[in-house]
C-alpha cells in the first residue's frame, strides 16, 4: 500500500547520501502510520536512516482482516522518480494504473511499477475477497539516468527460489547464489524473502549495505533479536549473514550499493529539489495529464500543498 511519506519520516529539504558503515547490527523501531484503512509499520525511511542501497521506503501491513466493510482501498495517486514493489504474504489486491494495467497480485507474485517522469495508480480490494491481508510495500529510488524516463509496469508470476540450510529464499529483485530475478532494476540492489527455520547463513555481497524487515516470528542476528516492527540495519562489508530463529520466521533482506544521490522525498514523490516537487504537485492538482488517468471507481487522492510553498 503506497505511502505517503511525511515530515515525521524525513525533512523537507534535500538530504545528503547516508553513509554506509562497516558491518554493524542496529535495531530501530518502525513508525506506526495509517494508509487508507490499514495501519502499517513504516520501517524506512526514518530520521536515522533514509535509504538502504536504493531502497527508500518499506511499509509492512497486516496481518489484517479484509472484507466488504474493511477494504484496503487506496484511490488514484501519483508517483515520480521511484519504483513501487508490492509483495504479499497473504490475501490479494488489484492494481490499476494510468498505463492501462489491471492486475491482481497474490502471494508469491511480484508487482513492480516504474514511475519515471510520472504515473498514477490505485490499489483496490478485489471483488468478493474476504480473508487476511498481509504484505509489504517497498519503494526504490530511481537514479538520475532513468528517473525522467517513461513509466512502466510488470508482474512476475513466478520468481526464482534458492534453498539454503534451514532457509527458503525467494529472489524478488537481483540475485542470490547464481540465480537471478527477471524483475527490472535500475541500480545494483537486491530484495530477498527469507523463510527461516533454525540457524542459517545467507551469502551476501560485501559491496552492498543491507537491512532486514521481519514480517513473521523473530530472528536473532549477532546477539540482537528483532520482531515485526523493527528494521535491522546491517551496514556493508559482509560476505555472509548468519541468522537464527526458534521455529518458523519470515523476513525481507534488502540491500544494494549505497545510493550516492541527494534525495528529497515528499508525499508520493522522490525528487532532488523543491522545484521538482512543486511541479509534480501542480501537475497533479491541475490534472495536467502528466500522470495520466486511472480507470478506478475510487476517488482521486489530493495532496496537501507543500508547506514551504507561499
How would you describe this structure to a colleague?
The protein is mostly beta strands and 310 residues long. It has one helix spanning 274-285, and strands at 26-29, 31-35, 38-44, 55-66, 74-79, 82-90, 93-97, 102-105, 110-114, 119-124, 131-141, 152-156, 161-164, 167-173, 175-176, 179-180, 189-203, 209-216, 219-221, 224-226, 230-235, 240-256, 264-266, 269-271.
Q: Judging from the principal axes of the Cα atoms, what is the shape? A: globular
From the 3D coordinates, which CATH architecture would you assign? Sandwich
Largest sheet: 7 strands, antiparallel
Look at the structure and name the CATH superfamily.
Answer: Jelly Rolls
Tally the helices: what do you get?
1
Supply the helix-strand structural class.
mainly beta
How many distinct beta strands?
A: 24
Q: What is the domain tally?
A: 1
CATH class: Mainly Beta
Low-pLDDT segments: none
- Kindly identify the CATH topology: Jelly Rolls
Task: Report the β-strand fraction as a percent range.
Answer: over 45%
Radius of gyration: 18 Å
Distance between the termini: 31 Å
What topology, given as strand order, has the largest sheet? 1-21-18-22-17-14-13
Residues in helices, as a percent range: under 10%
What's the order of the H and E elements? Answer: EEEEEEEEEEEEEEEEEEEEEEEEH
Overall pLDDT confidence: 92
